[in-house]
Specification:
Structural class: alpha/beta
Number of helices: 21
Helix content: 55-70%
Strand order of the largest sheet: 6-7-8-3-9-10
Radius of gyration: 35 Å
Number of strands: 10
Oligomer: single chain
Strand content: 5-15%
Largest sheet: 6 strands, mixed
Length: 589
């Protein structure tokens, strides 16, 4: 099957607006041709001046030819503005359609997609790659039509007066074009992809760095502790300097070539006038000296169009990298969970296809039971929670909720059965009421307020200028990490799903907020199956069962008392935790 060109793909996004793009090309080409007409009238003015000199009063058509030059210049400008209006309407429509299609596709992808793909990288693709198509369609394609039309008109003008001077005017054009081709070939296209990769990596790492600023400030770290971010900046700097040095000589020769037309014309004038100067030759020479700068402008446009075509090609490939990702398969015959139990059967999962983040994990959580997952960092706790909520599908094994494989449950129903409270809960820029309503969009105001009360949020509501209707993030209204957690808990309470997943939910809470968050957890957990991930072992002491994960495997399991008496990994973690708590208390005293 023949590969569809980038332009055909973009026109496919345009719909009926593609005719505006076609109109913009025609109008732009017409504008470029009309822009050459004033040079014709300028030639007539120069001819009349030379013919009537020194009796310039005999020149009768100077004013008329001058006004005709102005008329065609203005007409060319008006038509070009009309071309840009048509191209911009179509370009904005196409860019909006690309973003809309990409975002609608992202909604269908598994919830863990954004985390593995990188939020900074994803933002750059959705915003900047689609914006690259807008610049290309709104400006570059109309300019390309003009750049094609201009040489055609120039050829007619160059050969109309003196074919010898016309050929000499084109010599530096050919030289400049050959040099330009060396800078815009396949090698350059590969370099453009490398450039976009470097920008994408730096953008992604920048987002992660900004998100980690609270940790940097808390622990007094510097930017150098974020090695990936600094490394991406260093790699970008190294690449840009090397690339600039590589293009330095070709760009210097190109600039010299396309500006050397005057040298060619002057040399020709010296040769052609060695036996004397005629008035006609002088007239033509002056005309060529005036019009040849148009050649420089045209070649420069073509060069930048080639560069932008490569940028668009790379942008569409990056958009395809998102659009080609396939959603998790939906069941042909959906089944319904019988209760809130959770079971894993020999589950294994790997992020990179090499080392397993989970290795042959099996466990069973009864409905209404509270279990905790603890263990060293990188042990697989969060991955386990992601697998249960089907952020990803395991490479092997099965995950069952209510006795039904999660692959046989509709995505919407699965989300109705599982609620999440993460360690860094995010609130959208909307009122607290609307933030909580996201848990159940059809909920009434009274139901939302009741959820806020149950989540210990009334002290937050009472201090805000408009209570629950206060918009978070505007006019200096910001909430602490612990307060955001309580709002997130209220949202989960309103949703009222049978299974609750708590991922380090008290990590950023201060002592006062932590006590309130724990009270909110108690209210949230009543009658629910609770799966909690925690580093503060005091929060898991009352769990019905604790699973200790290490290197993607369940190292041990049992109640807090059973595990401490066993003297294994959990006992060591518990001893270290108690020592750290005593050290902190002694320090405060």
């Amino acid at each position: 099957m023949k590969k569809q060109s980038n332009l055909s793909r973009l026109m496919g996004y345009a719909g009926a607006h593609r005719f505006l793009s076609y109109a913009s090309w025609i109008l732009s080409a017409l504008s470029a041709l009309l822009a050459l007409v004033p040079f014709w009238y300028l030639w007539k003015i120069i001819r009349e001046v030379l013919e009537t000199a020194p009796d310039f009063a005999a020149a009768q058509n100077l004013v008329r030819n001058g006004w005709m030059a102005v008329l065609f210049a203005v007409l060319s400008l008006i038509i070009y503005i009309a071309a840009l209006m048509c191209s911009h309407i179509a370009a904005f429509r196409i860019a909006a359609r690309i973003r809309s299609d990409a975002v609608h596709h992202i909604v269908t992808l598994p919830l863990g997609f954004a985390e593995s793909f990188g939020s900074g990288r994803l933002r750059k693709i959705i915003n900047e790659s689609s914006a690259a198509t807008e610049t290309y369609l709104a400006h570059q394609l109309p300019d390309k039509a003009a750049a094609i039309a201009t040489p055609v008109g120039l050829l007619a003008l160059l050969f109309l007066f003196d074919w010898r001077l016309g050929l000499l005017s084109l010599a530096p054009v050919l030289l400049g074009f050959l040099i330009m081709m060396s800078m815009t070939g396949k090698k350059m296209q590969q370099k453009m992809a490398e450039y976009q990769n470097a920008l994408e990596e730096m953008s992604n790492e920048a987002v992660e760095y900004v998100r980690g600023i609270p940790v940097v400030k808390t622990f007094g770290q510097t930017v150098f502790s974020f090695k990936k971010f600094k490394g991406s900046i260093d790699r970008y700097e190294k690449w840009v300097i090397a690339y600039t040095k590589q293009l330095r000589l070709p760009m210097m020769f190109y600039t010299a070539a396309i500006n050397s037309v005057f040298a060619f014309l002057i040399a020709a004038a010296l040769i052609f006038t060695r036996n004397g100067v005629t008035q006609e030759f002088l007239l033509n020479l002056i005309f060529y000296i005036i019009i040849t700068p148009v050649i420089y402008v045209t070649l420069t446009r073509i060069m930048f169009q080639s560069e932008n075509a490569m940028i668009v090609d790379d942008a569409l490939k990056r958009i395809d990298s998102v659009m080609e990702l396939r959603p998790l398969p939906e069941p042909a015959e959906p089944k319904h969970p019988r209760n809130g139990s959770v079971e894993l059967q020999n589950v294994s999962y790997s992020y990179d296809g090499e080392k397993n983040a989970l290795e042959n994990v099996s466990l069973f959580v009864q409905a209404g039971e509270t279990v905790a997952f603890v263990g060293p960092s990188g042990g697989g706790k969060t991955t386990l929670a992601n697998i249960i909520s089907r952020f990803f599908d395991p490479q092997s094994g099965r995950v069952l909720i209510g006795g039904v494989d999660v692959k046989d449950i509709r995505k919407e129903e699965l989300m109705e059965n599982v609620s999440f409270v993460f360690q860094n809960s995010h609130l959208i820029k909307a009122s607290i009421l609307e933030n909580v309503r996201m848990g159940r969009p059809e909920a009434s105001r009274e139901e939302i307020l009741e959820a806020l009360r149950a989540a210990q949020c009334m002290d937050i509501i009472e201090k805000l200028p408009r209570g629950a209707d206060t918009v978070v993030g505007t006019k200096g209204v910001y909430l602490s990490g612990g307060e955001q957690q309580r709002i997130a808990i209220a949202r989960a309470m309103l949703k009222n799903s049978p299974i609750i997943i708590l991922d380090e939910a008290t990590a950023f809470a201060d002592p006062d907020n932590e006590a309130r968050v724990q009270e909110a957890f108690s209210a949230l957990s009543k009658g629910k199956t609770v799966l909690m991930i925690a580093h503060r072992l005091s929060t898991v002491a009352d769990a019905d069962r604790i699973y200790v994960l290490e290197d993607g495997r369940i190292a041990e399991s049992g109640t807090c008392r059973e595990l401490t008496e066993r003297g294994g990994l959990f006992y060591k973690m518990w001893t270290d935790y108690q020592a750290s708590v005593r050290w902190k208390m002694a320090e405060e005293v």
